[in-house]
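hiii, so i know i said id send this last week but things got crazy w the move. better late than never?? heres the sequnce for the chain we talked about at the cafe, plus the structure i predicted for it. fair warning i was half asleep when i ran it
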Amino acid sequence: MDFEHLLSPVRYLLDTCPAMSASALRTLRMYEAWWEHDGQAMSYAVDRAGTPHIRMFDRFGQRSDEILYISDYWRMLKEGYKAGIIWRVFEENSLIPFFLLDYVTCFYDIGVSCPYTVSLSTAVPLEKYGDATLHERYLTPLLRRDESVWQGATWMTEARGGSDLGANVDTLAQKGDDGRWYLTGDKYFCSNAGAEVAVVAARVGETAGVRGLALFLVPRYRDNGQLNYHLRRLKDKIATRSVPTGEIELHASEAYLLGKAEHGIYLIMEVLNLSRVSNAIGSTALAQRAFAEALHFAQKRIVFGQPLLEQPLMRRQFDDKLADINRAFALAWEAAEMLNGVYRQTPPYSEQFHVCRLMIHLAKYWTAEVAVQTAKWAMEVNGAMGTLAEFPVERWLREAMIADIWEGPPHRQILDGMEVMERKGAHHRLFEMLETYTEPDLLQDMAARIDRWLYAPQEIREADAQKMFEALALFTGDALLAKQRAVALEKTLEGRHKG
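okay and structure toks below
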């Protein structure tokens, strides 16, 4: 089997995506060329520099909370914004340009993808639920195409954790006598700390649980020009160093309610849908990069008189890892296309929206696991050299570990996926979508297994959830691979007919 297409993210996309316009391909090739020529060296320098510092006060004693990255960081970061990773979504009224550029980004640096993702996850709800004044003031700068572009952020999690937002969000939103909203509280894991504007989960009134949460837009600066939130510190974390993650303090911070307060948990879910699909796309790209690093070593390392790649056991491992990556991409891309079809919806949602939610949970769960296992294997292929920080292989394992945690670890995806099957019956519609691409007896067996599982007692159902969710992810991925092959064959036959 030929593995050379795994060395280029654009070539892999070209081989696997159902369709891509000539202009999209041209943009991707230019972006990949920039990474190859300039971006990789910048990314390496940022990673080696480690956690940046904060300049908390300016020379006049005014609070500034400025993040002091090396200059290469800002050059690298702004390149994706200029390429159109955010503005193309709104110009083309489609999420697909984001996911294509995001895949290329994550092949080189999944950490840089995080600011892009949370900026998109700020811009989309702002555009959907904000009024014309908010659009002019905050959306327009997020869609700029030059160095002056603003960044967004999504801050939900507090110190007790993020998996149970209903129990762990204490940030309080209060309406002042002037009719404006003010937020007070602490956010603990805040990616893209320092963003010009963020969407923030806060509690309105005394309603307990997720029903008491609402989504607010919080700018970096107050109307009087002073800081509207404070950056307490940056995290010195194991993984991605190319995104600043910090602790944010909100002290009567000026805020704008997005949508209806009683719909807050739904808007938060919409934000998570965007970031979870990006995570699935990024995990697959990271797995491809780890595979490429293993391939580069195995082609040149001579063991017992022949290249490591030609050893039967190693060759089989490469074949198996490629199959894992292909299945992961099929899941991630289906989630991306399904989300693209429903992300404009508002509550109450359609049946297709809930099926999309199930696909997102399956994709996020499976792709993150593939990224971790592929990066671990790539380190093993490189042997002792794979453990050294002077070579890139150990980095991909570090970064794969955070992709597994971002936007909800595996158990969160499993439980949320179980919920959408129990309450919305989303798996029935999923099986209808897949029936063309799988054997009838396999489909019937999987449907029966899911039904038996869902009707089991609660304690048994949750205890067996991971086993069943993994089986469903594998089944879905294999069916989507068959769909991918069918679409490719149809394109080939269509091309021959036109020829």
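btw The mean pLDDT is 94. thought thatd interest u
miss u guys!!
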